[in-house]
Structures are given as structure tokens and as C-alpha cells.
Task: inverse folding
């Protein structure tokens, strides 16, 4: 399904997070011996032997700082995995519509207004991303959505229309 863009953590933000995360801590990179960590820098799972870091990230806060919005109490931060060093980013094979990253599990799609307020959300089955995104963006008040893990509520990536 075309018409949607998944956005990883932006490169300038990644450079900052590799020094000090959004909780004010320095990251502690590790070698991922098993692989499988959902990397928010390149929207794929880590491979065994890659250097990764778990950092605190506040996606709505950073979006609000760029746009001048005030998300108020909706501002939050949480853990995300990133490569410990700069990576090439998404490989260009996706993510778009049906091919969105990390959609092989149940996820939530959380809708946000241009002011940064939560407009609602939905639980999405692995095969239900296209209808969930259509439903979200059918509401003209929705500016973007966050795709999140169900089990921990962690931010995976932002999706915009177009």
C-alpha cells in the first residue's frame, strides 16, 4: 500500500543520542551477541555481532521543538535501540504501507494532532496495518501516527501520509 512514509529516528537526533540521551545519560554500547533488537535508526532488527545502544528517546518532545507545538502532558520518553555508531539508515526496501517495518507482531498505532495531542489509538494485527493507517489518516485532524510495541509500549517509528 503506497502513500505512507515510515520515519526512523532522524540522523541529527541519532548523533545527539549517541552522546547523551533524552534522559541525560551517556549511552552504554554493547555487542549484540544474539541479534534481533528493533533498531530505530534503520528500521530493521540487529544482527549478531553489531554494536548497539539502548537509549532514552522523546520523539514527541523533539517533534514539538521542531514545529513549535506544545504536547503538554503527552510528552514522554522511552527506551529505543540504535546502532552505537552511525549506520546507513533504512535500506530502501521499504518501509511503505504493507511493507512497514516491524509489522510481524501485534502493534499499536497511536494518532496525534498537529498540536501533539493524542487523538486515539488502535491495536493492529500483523496483517492489518494498511487498514489501520487508512483509518487513522481518514481523520483530517491526524497529522502523524506512532507505531509502538504492544508488550512494552515502546516507540518504533513515526508514520506520515505521503
Result:
Amino acid at each position: 500500500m503506497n502513500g505512507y512514509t515510515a520515519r526512523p529516528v532522524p540522523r541529527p537526533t541519532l548523533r545527539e543520542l549517541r552522546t547523551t540521551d533524552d534522559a541525560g545519560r551517556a549511552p552504554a554500547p554493547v555487542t549484540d551477541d544474539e541479534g534481533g533488537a528493533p533498531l530505530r535508526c534503520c528500521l530493521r532488527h540487529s544482527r549478531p555481532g553489531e554494536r548497539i545502544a539502548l537509549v532514552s528517546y522523546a520523539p514527541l518532545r523533539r517533534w514539538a521543538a521542531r514545529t513549535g507545538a506544545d504536547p503538554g502532558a503527552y510528552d514522554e520518553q522511552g527506551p529505543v535501540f540504535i546502532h552505537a555508531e552511525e549506520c546507513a539508515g533504512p535500506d530502501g526496501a521499504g518501509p511503505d504501507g504493507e511493507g512497514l517495518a516491524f509489522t510481524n507482531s501485534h502493534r499499536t498505532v497511536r494518532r496525534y494532532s498537529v498540536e501533539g495531542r493524542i487523538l486515539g489509538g488502535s491495536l493492529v494485527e500483523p496483517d492489518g496495518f494498511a487498514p489501520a493507517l487508512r483509518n487513522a489518516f481518514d481523520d483530517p485532524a491526524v497529522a502523524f501516527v506512532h507505531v509502538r510495541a504492544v508488550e512494552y509500549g515502546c516507540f518504533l517509528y513515526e508514520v506520515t501520509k505521503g
User: Anything to note?
Assistant: The helical segments are 11-17, 59-67, 129-138. Residues 129-138 form the longest helix (10 residues). The chain has three helices and ten strands.
